[in-house]
Structures are given as C-alpha cells and as structure tokens.
Amino acid sequence: MSVRHAILALLSEGPKYGLQLQKEFESSTGEVWPLNIGQVYTTLQRLERDGLVESDDTESEGPQKGFHITDAGAEELCSWLNTPPDMTSPPRDELVIKVLSALRVPGFSVHDVIQVHRRYVVELMQQWTRLKEDESDFDLSFALVVDAELFRLDAVVRWLDTADGRLKRAAAEPTTAPHGPRIARRLVVRR
Amino acid sequence: MSFLELRRVSKSYGAGPTLVHAIQDVDLAVERGSLIAVMGPSGSGKSTLLTIAGSLEEPTSGEVLIGGASIQAMSRNDRARLRRRTIGYVFQDFNLLAGLTAVENVSLPLELDGLSAKKARAAGMAMLEGLGLADRATHFPDELSGGERQRVAIARAVVGERHLLLADEPSGALDSTNGEAVMRLMLTACKRGVAAVVVTHDAQLASWADRVVFLRDGRVVDQTVLPPSPESFLEESSPSSPHR
C-alpha cells in the first residue's frame, strides 16, 4: 500500500490538514492499517518537494497547515490508479520455501508440515470472518479490507490443498518427478 | 451435553482386496448453538461423515448419538421421525422439488410430519419472510436464482423445531456473496440453539464456523483452536506500518 498515493487520493477530495489526513487514512482502510502523524508529514514534505502537493501560504507549521493537490499530483494519482502493481515475478514466499524444504528433510512428513500451516491460516481466516459477523458494525472500507485479507489467505489454503494432493499423487506415481526441475528453470528465467 | 456426538465411527465399503475405509474412528461432538465445519479434499470422507451423522447411512462400527439418544438403538420409525422433526439437510445442488413452489418446498417437511396444510404453509411463509424471500414464495425453483434456491433449501432445513442442521458444500456453485449469505443464515439458526455441521473444501466457508475439523483419508487429523475475540485479534495483527 502506498501512503504517498493514498494521501494524494484523500487530497483529491479537497484541501486538508495533516491530522485530518491521518484520521481519514485510517478510517479509509477500516482502521486496519494505523499511520503515525510523523509519517504523514514526512510524506507531505516529499510530495511538496516533488510538486505533487502545495501547502497553504500561511506561516503556520504543524497541525494547522493545510495542503492541496496540484495538477501534477492529480496526474500522478490517475496514472498510479490505472497502473497494475508488478505481479509478474513470483514472490519469494516463505511458506512455499518451507514446504519445498520439508521435502528434502529425511523422516519429515511434508503432509504434517502442510497441515500445521493450513490450520494456522484457517484460524486466521476464522478471526477475520468474526469481524464480518456483525453487519451493522461493518463499514464499506473495512469490508473491502477484510475481504482482501480473506481472499489472500484463502489462496494460501488452496495452494496448500493442491500441494497436498499433488504430493500424494506423486508418491503414488513417482514418474511425475522429472517435471520438477523444468518448471523450476522456467521460473528462474522469468525472475 | 453435545447435541450430536459421533463416537469412534467408521464406515467401510466392499470387502477383501476392494475394501475401502471411507471414515475411520471419527470422534465428533457438536453442542447446541455451535457451528462446526469439516474440511477435507474430495474423497476424504466428508460426505460419508455427514450422511452417517444424519442417520441416512449406518456406520460399520461406532455410535452416533443425537440429543443423547443412540441412533442405532432406535427403531426404523423412530429414526424416520428423527429425520423429519429434528434434522435439517442442505445439499450442494439444493434438492428442491421442481414441481412445488418455494413455500410448498419449505412447508413440505411439516406436512409430512402431520401438520395441517394450512398451518404448514403459514410456518413456511413465516420462514421465507424471515429470509427476505416472501415475494418469491409462489415461484417455482427454476424461476429462482441460485442464491435464492439455496436460501429456500435452508428455510426448508430449519423450518419447524429442527435442532440439527447438516450441510454438504452448501454454497456449491454460488458466488462468494451468496456463499456468505448462506453461512449467515446457518449462523442465525445456530444463534437460535441449532447445532450445525457443514462439510466443505472451501476455507472461506469453513471460517464462519466456531471450530474447523480437518479430515484426511477418512480420519480426523487436526482441528482449529477457538480463536480469541475479534478486537484482540485486530490489535495484535495490525502492522505498525501500512506498507505491505
């Protein structure tokens, strides 16, 4: 999440003070991601330096100093919103590395390792889902953040389930093993 | 006391070299008011567990108790009555009767149990109203959306004084919004004191449960620990920086 661009998005609604930006940032992320005021001012200074925001002419510093977005800032915001984040390279996922490593350790059940992680992730999902239970206490920003977290964790469980099944089948049919290195090589090339 | 209890329940099919153990030594206890999810891949024995819990199938060994009474000790008639009055089933493909309207589908179990058609219909209508489906009551299943059909199926499963709700992949092919609506209805039933079991391979669905039990090759291999309150979780999980 880019604080820089989130602040530009809040300023696109109209001029705001630093403290106001901090509060609105936190409420717009369902208060899941806290942001300290120091980080708000550091970001505003950089945005001002880059000509993306301007401060009021007043001499006052600190909480009473207002900021507004410039044309260049609005252009930067529009460009950022329409640019998909880089998802081309597979991330170095610690969980994937753990499962791959468990395959190499003699006497270690990779299925048990998968289950330990599956249970942990499902427990996390139960906790996020509890936050959704009371719909009356559930604002839209918060709902979107919780959904995003649940889908991210759900993808992890799906991968663990698929890995579990694939390893079970591979144990029953060892002939599938030679495909492993070929996939690995291709991933290295893509990095 | 648990409303549903499975004690060392096993189920095998075939014999000799073709013997298959669908589930083995499964222990499961479900209190009234709680929702338990059973998660596992295809072929792990989830559906077998559910059909045995619902007295639709006999275990090869072990015991199933509902409301403290052993199913195996019951006569055929008593078991049929238990299925009509106490247990509600929700299936992936809804299993609504195509020739009956939504309200007729919902009131059918009550009529089969001897209630007058008028009273059964009134109870069915009240149930549909509670689920926001009053205006769809006279529609036939093929005139309803997938989400509406499943809500009607849940209404049918909990109408009357049913105490045990058993659901097999209840969100089936529904999208996540409708899947969530289905789980909210199940939770509402639990809040009224119903004991519920949902079997699924879907972690998002399972995460609505109070406890998730993991089934693998017919055995219970693990279960989640009851999570702490949402507030404490949010405080602990909030990263110090929003950068992710």
Quick overview of this protein structure:
The complex is a heterodimer of chains A (191) and B (244). With 191 residues, chain A is mainly alpha-helical.
The poorly predicted ranges of chain B are: 239-244
Into which percent range does the helicity of residues of chain A fall?
A: 55-70%
The helicity of chain B comes to 25-40%
Rounded to an integer, what's the Rg of chain B over CA atoms?
Answer: 19 Å
Rg measurement of chain A, Å: 23 Å
Count of spatially separate domains of chain A? 2
What global shape of chain A is seen?
Answer: elongated
Could you explain the architecture of this structure?
The complex is a heterodimer of chains A (191) and B (244). Chain A folds into two domains: 3-81, Arc Repressor Mutant, subunit A (Orthogonal Bundle), CATH 1.10.10; 94-190, no CATH class. Chain A has 191 residues and is mainly alpha-helical. Helix content of chain A is 65%, strand content 5%. A three-stranded antiparallel sheet of chain A has the order 1-3-2. The radius of gyration of chain A is 23 Å and the shape is elongated. With 244 residues, chain B is an alpha/beta fold. Chain B has a single domain (4-10, 23-226), classed as P-loop containing nucleotide triphosphate hydrolases (Rossmann fold). Chain B has a six-stranded mixed sheet with strand order 6-7-8-3-9-10, sandwiched between helices. A four-stranded antiparallel sheet of chain B has the order 2-1-4-5, with helices on one face. In chain B, α3 (102-112) crosses α4 (117-130), α3 packs parallel to α5 (146-158) and α5 packs parallel to α6. The longest helix of chain B has 16 residues, at 176-191. Mean pLDDT of chain B is 89; it is low at 239-244. At the A-B interface, α6 and α7 of A face α6, α7, β9, β10 and α8 of B.
